[in-house]
Amino acid sequence: MAVTYRSAAGDVPAVRGISLEVAEGEALGLAGESGSGKSTLAMTLLRLLPKSARVTGEILLDGEDVLRMNWGRLRAVRWASASVVFQGAQHALNPVRRVGEQIAEPLLVHGIAAPAEARTRVAGLLEQVGLPAWRARSYPHELSGGQRQRVMIAMALACSPRLIIADEPTTALDVMIQAQVLTLIRSLIADRGIGLIMISHDLSVLAATCDRLAVMYAGRVVETGPAREVFTGARHPYGRALAEAFPTVGDPSSRMAPRGLGGDPPDPMRLPGGCSFHPRCPVALPSCAWREVELWPADGAAVDPADHVTRSTETRHTAACVHVLPEPEEESA
Ligand SMILES: Nc1ncnc2c1ncn2[C@@H]1O[C@H](COP(=O)(O)OP(=O)(O)OP(=O)(O)O)[C@@H](O)[C@H]1O
Prior knowledge:
Blueprint: E1 2-7, E2 10-15, E3 27-31, H1 38-45, E4 53-56, E5 60-61, E6 64-65, H2 71-77, E7 82-85, H3 99-109, H4 115-128, H5 145-157, E8 163-167, H6 175-192, E9 195-200, H7 203-209, E10 212-217, E11 220-226, H8 227-232, H9 237-245, E12 296-297, H10 311-315, E13 318-319
Parallel strand pairs: 3-9, 3-10, 7-8, 8-9
Antiparallel strand pairs: 1-2, 1-4, 5-6, 10-11, 11-13, 12-13
Bound molecules: adenosine-5'-triphosphate.
Adenosine-5'-triphosphate binds next to strand 1, strand 2 and helix 1.
Main location: membrane
Protein name: Dipeptide/oligopeptide/nickel ABC transporter ATP-binding protein
Domain ABC transporter: 3-243
């Protein structure tokens, strides 16, 4: 799947050739610096991108291609089959409506429950996210940031979707509340068999919450695999830098920019040739300036080339770096 924004200055290739899969009850973490394309990828999944975005490829939700759904079908799928908790979503609540009414809305709009039943369901949802049922009568300004974020999670869960996409769901919260909300999301999706795609620039948050990680750089996935393995033994130099930048969950002293990496992430309109990371890479070889390596098993094991990008990336630790290829280049760095 790929996404290109059309702009007056030219085309912006924000997501370039990504293939990912999420199973029931599984949490996939998407990490990367600002501008790496994480939010674009998340918004694409439910076609929430601006009109200037052109999406190619396919996005299968229970075997049905989201990109080919008509608007009626797409409306039916949003909330009911898949829902998104946005970055700073707590500010998306309508300030003049009680939170209970707002949680009930997708249930009523999708005809899943009549008003009386919706009220009962809202009470149950609030309790599941750790809020007392009477909070349904509260207005958003009567709740703390963490409580509002819990309301957004209740809303995302309301229609029992198959997939939840959470884009930086805890970034605005303080460290203690952040940990509570992450634990809550994790246990709710595991109990209900919901797939989760969680987006963050903080690899430690994702490693603590997710089963698998995918690290994005300049619109591509450059490393993927079991969460602990990628976090503690990243094989792509960018994955390593990201893990070092966020050594522990919610550490306020963590740095936004990975330590030891000079420069900024590349402008997608002016991507360097070869591996997009090579100008910042501490272990780049001369060939990295012209050669872009596909995801490859990080243990260097030989695989069927037809298999290595799509299916095996889902379970194996893979990295798109010349240093994980089975036969290292005979070059000096
Ligand atoms: N509407 C748009 N038109 C043109 N370019 C865009 C648009 N939205 C995003 N981009 C560009 O696409 C690239 C990817 O942006 P995106 O927001 O997906 O990254 P991100 O990793 O989610 O960053 P952040 O963490 O800051 O949200 C960036 O270079 C951004 O400037």
